[in-house]
Amino acid sequence: MKKVLIIAKGEKAQKFLDRLTSTYVGDNYYDVVYYDDSILANETSMRFTFYKADPTSPTRVSQIYSKEHIQVNIIVDTKDDVKVIYSLVRRFDKRVPINIIDSWGLDIKDDLISLIDTRDLVSNRLVSLLPDVPVVAQHLGLGIGEIMEIQVPVGSSYAYRHIINIEQNKWKIAAVYRNNYMFLAKPSFLIKPNDILLAVGEPKILKNVYKAIKAQIGQFPSPYGRNIYYIIDGKNAKREDKEAEIQNVINIHKRLNSHNLHIRIVNPEKPDFVDFVRTFDCKDVEVMVNYKTTFTSEEFLHDIDDCHGGLVVVNNDFFEDKNNRKMLYESKKAVFRLGEDDTNKIENSGLIIGGNQNLEFLAASMFDITSQFSIGLTLYNITPDFSENSEIIEYYENLSIIYERKIDVVKKRANPVRELAKEENLLQILPFTSGVINKSMMDIFSVGEVEKQYRYLKKFHQIFIPVLESEV
Predict the structure, then answer these.
(1) How are beta strands 161-162 and 348-352 bridged, if at all?
(2) Are 423 and 358 in the same domain?
(3) How confident is the model at residue 270 (pLDDT cuts 50, 70, 90)?
(4) What is the pLDDT of residue 41?
């Protein structure tokens, strides 16, 4: 039979006993030693035995305490009494675990004692109620911050992200609270502003995640990952052709908030070309070589996971291959397809509005990217039938106020591809849906599915932002 000894005196002890007797107590039996009748609980059960006695008396303690007690709890409001009671218990049993309510900062060296400092409890609770302070679970698990609640603010880079698109290395989103309901975290769940995330992971990692979620623009390629991953196909590659391309990628790395740039060479044919690319290797740029003649989708996904890649950069030749597009789509990472011009010449960004319902999910990334590139942002509401698209335009205009970013809207009745092709130094932003994988000559007429028109505007640099085409 498991027995727990409780030594109680004072208001805190009364509150504790009231709570304990009204809660499911399992199969344990409780011996309660008390000083006065005022702390007795209103309700008791057959599992509680009460002794009115002085627990500072060695004789009384020896009569009540037994080896059947698996734990001792001392809730007493007098410092000197606590010290005496602790010493008596240890005299009779050197190994029994002891919990003590401490309101004074007791200095007791004992590996089997837990001091519950009431001052820490009050200060921790008050701090947790302050704005922008992470709330961590203190009575679950290890209680060291491995379980944390994080509210997603309006303007967060994590807002309007599907959970599957968020890199979760050494931490996980376990559940999401919205409108007083809890939702278990599914890969396809869409996070919205004011959601509360229940995150589990290493305490140090969670502190950084908290800062990233609370931060607004300036985080991309997070939350997809913290680094840029660039693939060079070395087959028939020439130094003079690749020099400008690599420099463009380095420019992107410098303009975005990426920690490191990982350059992966696949299909290397010439040692001198590999040696040339290695000249770019430095503190925040790593050059890696795959000497095999094939680079499978599984190898790519494993590679980008190891590199914590959030943005994958490829050239147009690589992107034109259907298998490569499928591989990139399955990675659920953002993809930068290099265009014809110098990336340092990019002056504006553009998003074509069609009938695509995924465009609102691009907003956070679009504002983030344009902020880091220090370029303008334009919505092109250009359709043959001049659709109003008033809701999506209003949505972006409202967010522009939150992000403090000016946004221009171009309204015109025309062919969007033909009109956009007149622009120069543009970074085009598109949703990365399954529609990008397959292509046909009829895509130019798919006005509503703007992502299918990417290949008619390939002179521009393009960023494809992953979205799920159905929300669960």
Answers:
(1) unpaired
(2) yes
(3) confident
(4) 64
Q: Are residues 84 and 176 in the same domain?
A: no
Residue found under tokens 């908290």 = 210
pLDDT (tens digit, 9 = 90+) per residue, 292-314?
877 888 999 999 999 999 999 99
Lowest mean pLDDT among 9-18, 396-405, 423-432: 396-405
| Structure tokens that stand for 358 in this block | 């995924």
Main-chain phi, psi angles of 401, to 5 degrees: -70, -45
What whole-number distance in Å separates Cα of residue 329 and Cα of residue 306? 18
> Which pLDDT tens digit goes with each residue over 13-40?
988 888 888 776 667 889 999 988 877 7
Tell whether the model's pLDDT for residue 183 goes beyond 70: yes
Do residues 347 and 459 share a domain?
Answer: yes
**Residue ranges in 166-315 assigned as alpha helix (H):** 203-214, 239-255, 271-278, 297-306
Neighbours of 459 (CB within 10 A): 15
Q: HSE of 11 in the Cβ direction (CA atoms, 13 Å)? A: 1
Alpha-carbon separation of residue 301 from 199, 298, 426, 447, 457 (angstroms): 24, 5, 30, 32, 28
Distance CA 449, CA 250 (A): 31
DSSP code per residue over 76-107: -S-HHHHHHHHHHHHHH-SSS-EEEEESS---
CA end-to-end distance (rounded Å), the chain: 49
> Could you give the CA distance from residue 351 to residue 427 in angstroms, rounded to a whole number?
9
Give the list of residues 6+ apart from residue 86 with CB closer than 8 angstroms, or none: 74, 98, 100, 108, 113
Q: Pairing state of beta strands 334-337 and 461-466?
A: antiparallel
Cβ proximity of 213 and 152 under 8 Å: yes
- Listed in sequence order, the residues at least 6 apart from 26 whose beta carbon sits closer than 8 Å to its beta carbon are none
Domain enclosing residue 347, as ranges? 343-466
* pLDDT above 80 (res 432): yes
In whole angstroms, what is the distance from residue 216 CA to residue 237 CA? 40
The pLDDT-based confidence of 416 (bands split at 50, 70, 90) is confident
| Residue that is last in its domain, among 310, 335, 360 | 335
Cα angle at 252 between 247 and 256, to 5 degrees? 150
Domain presence at residue 159: yes
Radius of gyration of the chain (CA): 31
CATH of the domain at 285: 3.40.50.11190
Beta bridge partners of 314: 337
Instruction: Assess contact for 182 and 175: CB atoms under 8 A.
Output: yes
Whether the predicted pLDDT of 97 surpasses 50: yes
Task: Please report the pLDDT score of residue 46 as a whole number.
Answer: 80
